[in-house]
Amino acid sequence: MSLKKILVLDGVTAVCRFRDDGVLMEAEGILPQELMERLAKFAQWYRRMVS
User: How far is CA 45 from CA 10, 29, 30, 35, in A?
Assistant: First the structure.
């Protein structure tokens, strides 16, 4: 499913796809690019903590 299709879901404001090292690969949403990059790094950190 593409990120744009996921973004259409009710209540979703941002969707990003990132590599295992936290580098942003693709992002869609209403957040500025800088915040998308921070979101990707946080998601990568969180995934490592709960795994």
Answer: 26, 21, 22, 15
